[in-house]
């Protein structure tokens, strides 16, 4: 499954908001430095979909806030 994510780093809390069937807004408290926010997004989405972090992969958008993420169910 492929989803579109709008990342919001440096947020006060970690949470996932579902905007549509394949679009999510993910708030993480980590800063976008050295991949820390990306790792936090992967960890948070894996918890949201109740799967191990290895099943979540950033397909496109490693350096931007708009990301395309593959979820391997």
Automatic annotation (TrEMBL):
InterPro entries: DUF167, YggU-like_sf
PANTHER family: UPF0235 PROTEIN C15ORF40
UniProt xrefs under Gene3D superfamilies: YggU-like (3.30.1200.10)
Family, as annotated: Belongs to the UPF0235 family.
NCBIfam families, alphabetized: DUF167 family protein (TIGR00251)
GO cellular component: cytoplasm
UniProt organism field: Candidatus Spechtbacteria bacterium RIFCSPHIGHO2_01_FULL_43_30
Residue stretches spanning the membrane: none
Identification of the protein by name: Uncharacterized protein
